[in-house]
Amino acid sequence: MRIGSWFGLHGAPAGAVIVSLSACGPELPDDLGERPPDRVWLTDVPALAHLARASPRGPDLTVEDLYRERPAYATAPDPTPYFEATAHAHRALPMPASSAPLRVLSYNTGILDRWYPFAVVAVPEVDQRRARAPAILLGDGWDILLLQEVWDARDVETFRAEAEARGYLLHAGSDRGHEEHGLLMLVHRDRFDPSGPDERRETTYAFQRDIEDFPGPGIARGFLSWRFRDPVSGRILFVFDTHATAFPELARVRETQVRELGLATHEAAAGDVVIVGGDLNGAPYYPDDVFGEVDGEPVRDWWRNAQAHALMQHYGGLQDAMVAVHGAHDVRWMQQLPRYGAAYRGEPLGDRTRCSQFIGAFTATDCNTLYFAQYAGTEYPARIDHVLWRDPLELVRVTVAELHYEGPLPGETFELSDHAGVGVTFAVGRSP
Amino acid sequence: MRIVDASREPTYHARVLVSGLALLLAGAPVDGQDFAPAPVAQRPAERRRSGRGLLAAGGTLLGLGVVGRIAIEGFWVGPAGLEPHEPFGEWSIPGIALFTTFANVLVVPGIVLTGVGAARLGHSRAASPSWRPRPWQGPAARRVGWVVLGTGVGLWAATRLLAVPILHSCPTNACAYGYLESTYWLALGATVAGAVVVGLNPSGPPRVAVTPWLGRHARGLALGGRF
């Protein structure tokens, strides 16, 4: 679930009174403009050049300007040239002479069942799904699982019991911190060298939508990181798991979060393979700036919602694994979506038979029954969950990148989560 | 004169009659022998101070607060779906504090108004010539009332001060919500009952009383008090 529908943003009247609380505090990082990635021209960064092309002021904008001035877009920022070039370049790279496959899953489990004064926020069928998720996810042979929305301590314990039975190690952060970020990392023992390093961290983002924490249901966004040696490849993996703030209206919060995360990935040592997985609540591309409606009001600023993915790549020096394999397929999928209309509120994509055309396309879509039950025509169908990586040695290849857990659970009419997962198989070249 | 009946109020140590206002408002010279107020001037004052209005207001607020608290408990059991055996989520502690405050915004003023109303009613009743205290009414009952009131307020304060560490150590909803709600109802019941008993069993008349005064040669207000 995209944690939301609260406090007036999606029309909850009880919370509308206190929505102004979210305006408290600074809106931008104090050190914005002091880091080298802040000061570059958009046109000089391949991952950001499409933002410059879509803005009338694009050639005159730095990354810092993007944060401070929030320039408007005249057209949809379209990353197709960069994505196609990335995929082409990745395919052209020779396979390392010696490599080990590494299967990584990023998955928003949607195990959410919380209350706050006068309201409940829960993803449907949560009790059945929370009971089944650990066995299903840990039984599918993933080497690393980067999970989001495993909010409650009891669910961590369920995963822990399953992890011990199936040979996984677990990093959930601190007891108190975990209940705020809901993140969970699992690494199979076969991919963890106990001789070290074993550096586990938990970070709460400096910028939040504060009402999600209080008076909301105790949520504070952040990321987990885990640095360890993979004994199979011999490489040190520096892995991050995150869940960013949702909604186009809160793009500025989300963009400061991805900046913080991107900069944090540079704490990696020179030869580390950095892997970032998570729910960024932002897709790489949206055809229209206005899509969906909430309480009769159109939802705007989708073009700006695409900035987080681009900025994540920029600040982290990261590549999107799906893009490396499929190029600009996000753009192609999104352009096939029918225009928004009232029919979207009645049926997924306005006509549920269309869903069969979009299998493998979106991690958050009304074609998911749990998602439709919550959002129905209020959100752009999109791939908002991502796996990205950086390897300074250029010894990592993406061999498979695809969506998982899209369909209903066996014997059920609902899915394992309201998101689909992003599964990536890396070929991790052994260090020379 | 109604201001004080010393024979029925043994704890009434000293009294002062302030006739300044009477002098200021006098329509005729005061001759010192004609101070008996007209009976008609006393009845409205007696009714005004009966405390029944305050009791009604306090009871209404308390009732609404109690209904609110029950509604909160219904929310937890119903829409929130909290099961007693399930683990308690520590994330919910600030939400609990905020949520229960909504009910207490009504309950706390309700207790105060009920207590003041009971005290006024007690004084009014004690001042009535027709009132005869029952054996269980009087100073002993007042002392019991103070003990119950003190227990209620003390329990309330102590259990709320200790709530955070106790809730952090609670493994289940039954432990956490059971602690909060059982102590709440016990403390509330004791506090309200104690306040009412104390109020209805006054140790003496109000410390200060203002009484309209109408005589043949003087009109004004009389202020009586205990110092």
Topology of this protein?
The complex is a heterodimer of chains A (432) and B (227).
Chain A lengths: L12 H4 L32 H6 L8 H7 L10 H13 L6 E13 L1 E4 L2 E4 L3 H13 L5 E7 L2 H14 L1 E4 L3 H7 L2 E5 L9 E7 L17 E8 L6 E8 L7 H14 L8 E7 L13 E2 L2 E2 L3 H4 L1 H10 L2 E2 H6 L2 H8 L6 H4 L22 H7 L9 E6 L5 E9 L16 E9 L3
Parallel strand pairs in A: 1-4, 9-10
Antiparallel strand pairs in A: 1-16, 2-3, 4-6, 5-6, 7-8, 8-9, 10-14, 11-12, 13-14, 15-16
Helix pairs in contact in A: 5-6, 8-10
Chain B lengths: L19 H6 L16 H7 L3 H26 L15 H35 L11 H23 L1 H7 L3 H28 L7 E7 L4 E7 L2
Antiparallel strand pairs in B: 1-2
Helix pairs in contact in B: 3-4, 4-7, 5-7
Multimerization state: heterodimer
Count helical runs of chain A.
14
Number of strands of chain B: 2
From the alpha-carbon coordinates, what is the Rg of chain A to the nearest angstrom? Answer: 20 Å
Largest interface: A-B, 21 and 17 residues
Distance between the termini of chain B: 20 Å
Would you list the SSEs of chain B in sequence order as H and E? HHHHHHHEE
- Provide the helix percentage of chain A: 25-40%
Descriptive report:
The complex is a heterodimer of chains A (432) and B (227). In chain A, helix 5 packs parallel to helix 6 (153-166) and helix 8 (251-264) runs parallel beside helix 10 (307-316). The N and C termini of chain A lie far apart (43 Å). With 432 residues, chain A is an alpha+beta fold. In chain A, 27% of the residues lie in helices and 22% in strands. Chain A contains 14 helices and 16 strands. Chain A has helices at 13-16, 49-54, 63-69, 80-92, 126-138, 153-166, 175-181, 251-264, 302-305, 307-316, 321-326, 329-336, 343-346, 369-375, and strands spanning 99-111, 113-116, 119-122, 144-150, 168-171, 184-188, 198-204, 222-229, 236-243, 273-279, 293-294, 297-298, 319-320, 385-390, 396-404, 421-429. With 227 residues, chain B is mainly alpha-helical. Chain B is built from seven helices and two strands. Chain B has a two-stranded antiparallel sheet with strand order 1-2. In chain B, helix 3 (52-77) runs antiparallel to helix 4 and helix 5 runs antiparallel to helix 7. The two termini of chain B are 20 Å apart. At the A-B interface, strand 2 and helix 7 of A face helix 4 of B.
